[in-house]
Amino acid sequence: MLLAKTLRSSTFRLALIAIGIFGLIVSVIFAYVYWSTLSYVRDRSDRAIMTEQASLDDAYARSGRDGLTALIAQRIADKAFADHVYLLAGPGSAVFAGNLKQWPAEAAGQGWTEFRVSLPQLATGTSLARVVTETLSNGDRLLVGRDISDLDGFMAQIRAAGIAVVVLIIVLAAAASIGVTRRTVGRIESINATSRAIMLSGLDQRIPLLGSHDEWDRVAENLNLMLDRIQTLMGDVKQVSENIAHDLRTPLTRMRGRLEKAYHAPRNAEGDAALIGDTIADLDAVLGMFASITRISEIETRARKGAFRTVNLVEIAGEVVELYDAAAEEVTTHLDLAGDPAVMVTGDRDLLFDAIANLVDNAIKHGRPGGRVTVTCDDDEGGPVISVADDGPGIPADQHDRVFKRFYRLEQSRYTPGNGLGLSLVAAVASLHGAKIELRDSAPGLLCRLIFPAAEA
Predict the structure, then answer these.
(1) The Histidine kinase domain covers which part of the protein (predicted)?
(2) What number of other Cβ atoms are within 10 A of residue 232's Cβ?
């Protein structure tokens, strides 16, 4: 099964193409080396033959046919010239000197040629001779050459070795490509199997890691992280759906009860007006909830970066403090602004105002009556920071990450006004601006910090 998928895979086809190209390149390189070596060795042999031919021509020029015959006989008797071929023949093919019995048919013309010949001074049987022929001034024909059997054998060994190397390389490359392709297909099949299991049973499955820390393990890790993220988002969607249903049930039930009661009761202008007013208030709360959800979604999709400008956090925080000063006085909470006189960031002024306002509103609502809420703007080494601190009961450490989820509310906050979307909006604004949110216990109370990225130099 795996072998069939391996042979059908595109990776294997690409590997075969790569092997073919590699084999072609190796073959071309080998052919170049072979012909270069052959040309070099042949050239040296030809130069030696031409040098010997020149010596014989000199002897003929000095002493005629007799001197040339004597020199050829001397060469044949010398063991140093045992691999040489000589033949001096007349116009009628009569042999005057040499170690060939007759003029070879392959050397009918003039110039270079090769042929098989049996030399009496060599006990190697038939040899391959390379010779050059010429016609002398008196009509005689002179043949001079060498036995190149060793050269031919050497080149045959090079050919055999080259072919063996090319075949070995191709076989090894094919085996390696099959192994790599099987491994690749195996990892892909593991991912496919996990994907099918997820489609059948849910998001609990994860792609197994081999512990090799290679690119496939990194892909599997990233896919597992993506699945973790999807599972978290699906859980958030489920929680949001349940919270929306829970938060809408109360106002909708209340509105239906009022309308049903009014439907069965006699008309009363004053009572009807009160009923309409209460119903409108409940509808406004529901519409406000959906408006908040829509605004958070818009911020999370980063659709509002076009309004980014350089703004002063201190000015924005001052406007928020001024806006909530009256609300703080109602619960005898002291609200003040501290820190640097100017802290500049790049961002959307309206969104930053909403985020700071939500933090201050939460601090006043959930802080200690008669306590203190302090808004501080600083410019430290990590970047611009705005913090909101209260001296109320705070938030348990294990709840710090959960309070930024939509509609999430602490148990002690269930009966206070709100819909659990304020801190979700703060988180969305912080993410849009690249800011980090920190929640700290300020013993007593809670300290919430928004740390913005430092301005580039």
Answers:
(1) 243-456
(2) 11
What is the value of pTM for the model shown? Answer: 0.47
State the pairing for strand pair 126-135/141-147.
Answer: antiparallel
CATH of segment(s) 2-154: 3.30.450
What is the rounded CA–CA span in Å between residue 306 and residue 309? 9
**Alpha-carbon gap, residue 179 to 177, rounded angstroms:** 5
Domain ranges of the chain: 2-154, 215-300, 305-451
- For the stretch 147-172, pLDDT in tens is 888 777 777 788 888 788 878 887 88
Q: Round to whole Å and give the CA distance between 87 and 82.
A: 14
Going by C-alpha positions, the residue among 169, 174, 173 that lies closest to residue 30 is 169
- Left (φ > 0), alpha (ψ -120 to 50) or beta: where does 418 sit? left
Distances (CA, A) of 34 to 41, 67, 84, 151, 156: 11, 42, 25, 12, 10
The alpha carbon dihedral of 294, 299, 304, 307 has a sign of positive
User: Which top CATH class is 305-451?
Assistant: alpha beta
- Residues with Cβ within 8 Å of 93's Cβ and at least 6 positions away in sequence, in order, are 102, 103
The backbone torsions φ and ψ at residue 138, rounded to the nearest 5 degrees and listed phi first, read -90, 5
CA distances from 409 to 220, 251, 371, 399 (A): 36, 18, 22, 10
Question: pLDDT by residue (tens digit) across 338-386?
Answer: 888 888 888 888 888 888 988 898 888 888 888 889 999 988 777 899 9
Domain 215-300 has CATH 1.10.287.130: yes
Cis before 444 (ω within 30): yes
Task: Give residues with Cβ within 8 angstroms of 343, minimum separation 6.
Answer: 312, 313, 314, 377, 378, 379, 384, 385, 386
Euclidean distance between CA atoms 217 and 106, whole angstroms: 70
